[in-house]
Amino acid sequence: MIHRTALVDPTAQLAHDATVGPYAIIGPHVTVGERCHVAAHAVLERNVRLGWGVKVGYGTIIGNDPQDLKYKGEDTWVEVGSATVIREYCTINRGTPATGKTAVGERCFLMSYVHVAHDCVVGNDVIIANAVQMAGHVTVEDRAIISGLVPIHQFVRIGTFAFVGGGSRVNQDVPPYTKAVGNPVHLYGLNSVGLQRAGFSAEVKLALKRAYRLLFNSDMTVSQGIAKARAELPQTPEVENFLKFIEGSQRGVLV
Q1: How many domains would you assign to the chain?
Q2: Is 118 tagged catalytic?
Q3: What CATH number does the domain containing 115 carry?
Q4: Alpha-carbon distances of 71 from 68, 102, 153, rounded to whole Å
Q5: Span 157-178, pLDDT tens digits
Q6: Are residues 28 and 124 in the same domain?
Q7: How far is CA 158 from CA 17, 128, 201, in A?
């Protein structure tokens, strides 16, 4: 299951049914789970943990040093969840001592040329299209979708079920359940298609729409809008998640 031209470090641990293609490199302290496939010329440089069923595309590099001038060779990691697909020529850097690791969740799909920088956290069931470039400490929550050619500023958060359109330059937080498009980027309402496909009830979608209007389509300040939403809207988990995300924003949210 391991091609004769592949290089595997003695400290690496590979499941019995993992496959490794020609000229791939599996470096020190790498764990490759069951049913994983590492394609030709891929590199798992060091300190990488792959869950089961992960597919690593041709030429992809995972676990290389963080591109951070403060990094001085500390022992940090990359973790990739089960059933995630990482296509050709992606790069996923290890974390820095700030968090200790870079993490990609389960069942994600990272298309070609995606860059996930140090200390990023990508949730479960996330789709990231071609050539998305993430700076350090970016957080992408579960079920978000990021279209192609999107640069994302460091420390930005993209909320659950958010949708970011292609070519958008994301420099502030994208609230959950919304869609953001453009350069400069702006919000354009709820991600209605995504919510419908995910089976959200009509009541939840209506409550989210009313919360969105209070915060982004009214004359109230953000704090006033949040207070009014909590006082008047059904307190569903989705509405509370939407409000808490905005309350906790450090970089500010898009409008």
Answers
A1: 2
A2: yes
A3: 2.160.10.10
A4: 6, 14, 19
A5: 999 999 999 999 999 999 999 9
A6: yes
A7: 35, 12, 22
pLDDT category of residue 254 using cuts at 50, 70 and 90: very high
What is the predicted pLDDT for the residue at 47? 98
DSSP summary character for residue 65: P
125 tagged catalytic: no
Domain match, 116 and 235 both: no
Q: Is residue 153 flagged as an active site residue?
A: no
- The one catalytic residue in 33, 119, 125, 173 is 119
Specify if 43 maps to a domain: yes
pTM confidence score: 0.97
How far separated are the first and last CA of the chain, in Å rounded?
51
Query: Is residue 1 classed as helix, strand or coil in its secondary structure?
Result: coil
- Between CA 8 and CA 18 the distance in angstroms is 13
Q: Which of 63, 118, 123, 125 is catalytic?
A: 118
Cis peptide before 234 (omega within 30 of 0): no
Range 35-41 contact pairs with CB under 8 angstroms and sequence separation of 24 or more: 39/88, 40/3
Give the type of residue at 80. Answer: V
Residue type, 161: F
Residues in the chain: 255
Catalytic residue (one of 33, 51, 136, 159): 136
